[in-house]
Every structure is written in C-alpha cells, then in structure tokens.
Amino acid sequence: SEFDLIIANGTVATAANFFAADIAVKDGKFVQIGQNLTGSKRRIDASGKFVLPGGIDSHVHISQPSGEGIVMADDFESGTLSALFGGNTTIMPFCLQEKGQSMREALTAYHALADGQCYTDVSFHLIISDPTASVLGQELPALVAGGYTSLKVFMTYEGLRLNDAEILKVLDVSRETGATVMVHCENEDAILFLIAKHELAGDVAPRAHASTRPIAVEREATHRALSLAEVVDVPIVIVHVSNGEAMDEIARARARGVKVVGETCPQYLVLTAKDLDGMDWEDAKMVCSPPPRDEAAQADCWQGIETGVFDLFSSDHCPFRYDDPQDKLNPKGSVNFRHIPNGIPGVETRLPILFSEGVMKGRIDLPRFVALTSTNHAKTYGLYPQKGSIAIGADADITIWDPEAKRTIRHAELHDGSDYSPYEGMYVTGWPVTTIVAGAVMVEDGILVGKKGQGKYRPATTRPVGIRGQA
Ligand code: DUC
Ligand code: ZN
Ligand code: ZN
Ligand code: ZN
C-alpha cells in the first residue's frame, strides 16, 4: 500500500551509525528504511541534508510559578513552538507540586494548560516539593504506573528544597516503583551563608549570583546526592552539571557501581561567570543555577560530552523577560541579585549550538549528537523505543538539518516568549530546517505549516529502559 511520506536522498543518522537511505512513513510511524523507495502521497528531497531523530529536550520549564509573583515567559503554545523551530519533536516540562498540593491536583492544572496548545509532543516530569506520606505512599506508585515515571527534587531554594531524610524517602519510593529521580545539586545552607556575607558587604549586583553559588556548593551536593542513591541502591540523574569537579563525583560514583546519568546544558559550554560580571544590570539576563563557570570548566564539560560522563544534553529552558519590572530587570524595584529569577531561555538554540560547536567543529560525530540530544533522553525517561530513534515501528519524529546553513543567533528570529537570548550574536553553522512530529510536517524549510494542538501528551513507560542498565 501507499506510504504517506518518503524522505529521500538524505544522510540518516541514529545513535549507532549513519548511512545514505530513504525512509518511508505511514500512519505516523516509520515503516521502511531502504534505497530508491517510491509510492507515497508526499516526498521530501533531503539531498545534502542530515535526517535525524527529532530532538527530545528532557529539561524544560513552562508555565511554572516562580515565586514573588514572577511569571515564566512561555506557556505551552510559545514554549513548544520555540522548541519546534529549534528542531525538537518532544519536550519534557516539569509539573511542579506546590506545598500542600497533591500531585494529582498539580497534574490536572498542567494538563489543562497544555491540552490543545502544543506544537511538539510533551511528556511530564514531576517536581516533589512536599513529600508527605500520602504523596509518597499512595499517589506516586499510581502515577508511576500511569505514565509519570520521572521526578525532580531540589537541594536548594527555600520552599522547594528537600532535606536528606526526605530525599532518601523519595529515592526509596523510586526504587520500589521504578521511577527515575533527577536531582538539582546545590547546598542551600552554604548559599545562604554566602548571600548573607555578600549583602553585608553591599555586593548585590547580578555577578554576586555566581559568587554565592561557587563550584564547592555544587560539588558537595552532587557527592551527597550520589551517596544517598548509593545507600538506597537506586539509579539517579544529576541534572545541569556545570563543571569538572561535579563531573569527577559522577565518574567516581560510577566506578563504585552507582547507576548515574549525567546531564549538561549549553550555558556550561559557551557562557562563563564573566558574563555576569559587567557591573551592569543587563548581566541579570545570564542568571541561572548553577551559574556558568570559567573556560576550564567549559573545557571539562566538553570532555564530558565527548567521553560519556554526560549522557544528556538539555536546555534547562527557564524563560523570564528582561525588560519587565516583575522579572529579570530590577525585580520588585530592588536592585539585588537575590530577587532575579533563576533561569534562561534556550529550547530553540540548544540543538544548533551543539551541532555547530560539537559536530561541525569535529568534537563529536553525528551518532553521538543524536544520542546526547534525542535517544538517551527517550531511554532515560521511558519514551524509548516509541521515540528517540529512526527505526521501524517508532514514531516518525524527524528533524532535517541543513549542515551548510549559516546563522547568527538573534532573539528577534526566535519564537519563545522571552525578550532576549543569552546567545545573541553567536554565529552557528547548521540549522534544523524541517521538523516532522509523528509523521506530520510541522516546519518545512523554516516555515510553520503545522497547527497548534498537533503535539500530543505522551505517557512514559512504567519501567524506563535505562541507558546504563537500570531497567
Ligand atoms: N534549576 C533548574 O533546573 N532550572 C532553572 C533554575 C534552576 O535552579
Ligand atoms: Zn535545577
Ligand atoms: Zn562577591
Ligand atoms: Zn531546570
């Protein structure tokens, strides 16, 4: 019978290899990979292009309340549109449990925000801020069985942080249920100690954000999270790792037999703390946690990408507006780094930055790029094999890359709801030109052709297929 779509003459890549092939799609799935395929309703010529599994960004914040009346700059419509134009076919935002809320209440709210609004497929992580006996004992086992198989906990932020006893309980439930725990590793007491010192000294410009969250704060918390996972004997994901010392903790834990997945992000490859040290309130645009470090840390993170300390490369898209008194710019009228919301936009620039700086500069090959940006996300968080590869029977999520495209990143040309890009002016080679979600062409040659609502919610599987044997 006739195919719906053939993508012909491209260089097809998976996490394992790359090869010249045509691929055929029917009913939203890959049905054939071969040579000289014919007989389809539609045909896209991908000569000179790379045909890759659609990007999966497993670390994205959308519509999350951020304290003090601060509102995130993206809802599900703008966030998924930006993701789509950046070559992503699935994103995994967080469903934040607020204190006193049940997880079900929180999920009902996020689903209501997402339903009918999305341009990419979406799957949710949970954030546990209130690990009561009923949340851990009753709710979580049912939720894990019902498609919510990953959860994040924080070691920092008043109102969000869990203590070690609480983290141990969450890890224990994850061991029982097969859920995957992601940890934000920074020592809150050490940060509060340094903040008090800086405020006393009147050192409250945006750069103080970086100096109150030094590497030692992240390294210690990373070590502690890994040790707690070791005690419970359960796999763990260490998110947004910013430097070599935290990486060493991951490598050492792995050598002891801890099953750990490491994630890093674009900001740790191309920004440094100097971007927060211009003595200028505009530095607030670069405030994220953990903060970007120095050139040596960047080199270490690149090495982690090349050698496998890191399995995941995510954006940690967490968008706020700069030119808005409620957000990055003098929030609440108080010129103090403590009130700058933590987080930067990046869901649309994640893939072009790694493609240009990684693949085009010869640091990584195409299969490694695919693993870091798609396949490993699907495997870690229970979306594989439905997503994350070009394989017969999988969802036809495809991003076609023009490796010759030259672009200078300009926020004016991006699609998120923020009003700046931390990467403004960065020159990149290679850009995702056509993006296909479950067989539906959504962006074609840089033009939006799909519709809001075509992206769907995708439950994750109960027992995630691990990339490090944690299945
Ligand atoms: N942690 C995140 O994961 N994202 C943005 C801010 C933060 O602290
Ligand atoms: Zn975090
Ligand atoms: Zn200082
Ligand atoms: Zn984040």
UniProtKB/TrEMBL annotation:
Residues 50-441 form the Amidohydrolase-related domain. GO terms for molecular function: hydrolase activity, acting on carbon-nitrogen (but not peptide) bonds, in cyclic amides; metal ion binding. One of its GO terms (cellular component) is cytosol. Gene3D superfamilies: Metal-dependent hydrolases (3.20.20.140), Urease, subunit C, domain 1 (2.30.40.10). SUPFAM superfamilies: Composite domain of metallo-dependent hydrolases (SSF51338), Metallo-dependent hydrolases (SSF51556). InterPro entries: Amidohydro-rel, Hydantoinase/dihydroPyrase, Metal-dep_hydrolase_composite, Metal_Hydrolase, Metallo-dep_Hydrolases_sf. Its cofactor is Zn(2+). Pfam families: Amidohydro_1. The modification N6-carboxylysine is found at K152. Keywords: Hydrolase, Metal-binding. Carbamylation allows a single lysine to coordinate two divalent metal cations. Belongs to the metallo-dependent hydrolases superfamily. Hydantoinase/dihydropyrimidinase family. This is Dihydropyrimidinase. It comes from Rhizobium lusitanum.
